[in-house]
TrEMBL record:
It comes from Citrus clementina. The keyword Transferase applies. The keyword Amino-acid biosynthesis applies. Keywords: Amino-acid biosynthesis, Aminotransferase, Branched-chain amino acid biosynthesis, Pyridoxal phosphate, Transferase. SUPFAM superfamilies: D-aminoacid aminotransferase-like PLP-dependent enzymes (SSF56752). GO terms for molecular function: L-isoleucine-2-oxoglutarate transaminase activity; L-leucine-2-oxoglutarate transaminase activity; L-valine-2-oxoglutarate transaminase activity. It catalyses: L-leucine + 2-oxoglutarate = 4-methyl-2-oxopentanoate + L-glutamate; L-valine + 2-oxoglutarate = 3-methyl-2-oxobutanoate + L-glutamate; L-isoleucine + 2-oxoglutarate = (S)-3-methyl-2-oxopentanoate + L-glutamate. This is Branched-chain-amino-acid aminotransferase.
Length: 355
């Protein structure tokens, strides 16, 4: 639909209560219930564990993957094919009942390189630690970098679930094309995620206590002085156990509507997960938090009246049986949770409008 038909909340005040619904990107997809008076234009203990191989078995379009141990390109030793529920795992010694959304060093990270030929070498698991970059690297000088965010969950029976990792792989490929970078294949990406998760499985919180946040990075690691694509690229994955992104948990949060600062512009990079998109929101976000708000809700930069998204997540507007969300037109990141919610909502009989 045209931007003129995008959802407009005539009665929206500078701050409104927003309810986080489900995990998306760094934080969550937000649902905003609209009262009838509103209207719209459309109406750490460290024990070295050996990395394990595994295979993920897809269930349905909306069901996370089940993680099983079997043969894999990243196998370091032979293992019998069995589910993780059959294995006793000693969890890391941390306070699982008080996890926030913060960084906690784990055991392993995954690293894969790509040279001038555009082909990624065979990746490997390494002990987690600092990395070395040239001061002239493309990512440090020109922001040539992307990242993704997804999670692994532990079920009550001990199985580990991943949520649609192939979608993150495809989104990284789209972003890499926009940023003039090579990218791993979907298979390389998913296998790397699987290997990293199992190598750090003792850091996956118990069922209901949180999740293992997975952060894939793609960066121009080669040295370049003039403005140009880097000659070498590094694909890296690290993980961290996390709780809820917002400290309020599933309780309503306060957002402030930002009218002057904008996170993305038409023709820019707002539709891909490049690192620079997030540094640009820090000023408005810091000011909002200093005033007691949880985050910032951004408007479009042209008309300054149409909802776009929050600093780190998509947004839905709910009124009765109608769910509205801003259309993906280059300024909004195509959230994987967003896509999943739309699919599930439509299957449950809701009318979903992308405006």
């Amino acid at each position: 639909m045209e931007r003129s038909s995008s959802a407009v909340m005539a009665g929206l005040q500078p701050n409104s209560l927003i309810c986080p619904f489900a995990s998306s990107r760094n934080g969550c997809t937000l649902f905003l219930p609209i009262p009838n008076s509103f209207s719209s234009a459309a109406g750490q203990s460290r024990h070295c564990l050996p990395p394990l191989s595994l295979k993920l078995q897809k269930q349905t379009a909306f069901t996370p993957y089940h993680v099983n141990q079997t043969d894999s390109p990243f196998k370091l030793f032979s293992v019998s094919s069995h589910t993780l529920s059959n294995e006793t795992i000693q969890l890391a010694d941390i306070d699982w009942d008080n996890l926030g959304f913060g960084f906690c060093p784990t055991d392993y990270m995954y690293v894969m390189k790509c040279g001038r030929d555009g082909n990624f070498s065979k990746g490997e698991l390494q002990r987690f630690g600092n990395i070395e970059l040239s001061p002239s690297s493309g990512v440090l000088n020109y922001g040539q970098g992307l990242f993704e965010g997804l999670k692994a969950y532990r079920k009550q029976d001990g199985n580990i679930l991943l949520f649609r990792p192939e979608e993150n792989a495809m989104r990284m490929q789209v972003g890499a094309e926009r940023m003039c970078m090579p990218s791993p294949s979907v298979e390389q990406f998913v296998e790397a995620v699987k290997a990293t998760v199992l190598a750090n499985k003792r850091w996956i919180p118990p069922s209901g206590k949180g999740s293992l946040y997975i952060r894939p990075l793609l960066m121009g690691s080669g040295a370049v002085l003039g403005l140009a694509p880097a000659p070498e690229y590094t694909f890296l994955i690290y993980v961290s156990p996390v709780g809820n992104y917002f400290k309020e948990g599933i309780a309503p949060i306060n957002l402030v509507v930002e009218h002057e600062l904008h996170r993305a512009t038409p023709g820019g990079t707002g539709g891909v997960k490049t690192i620079g998109n997030y540094a640009a929101v820090l000023k408005a976000q810091s000011a909002a938090k200093a005033k007691g708000y949880s985050d910032v809700l951004y408007l479009d930069c042209v008309h300054k009246r149409y909802l776009e998204e929050v600093s780190s997540c998509n947004i839905f507007v709910v009124k009765g049986n109608v769910i509205s969300t801003p259309v993906i037109k280059g300024t909004i990141l195509p959230g994987i949770t967003r896509k999943s919610i739309i699919d599930v909502a439509q299957s449950q009989g809701f009318q979903v409008l992308t405006m």
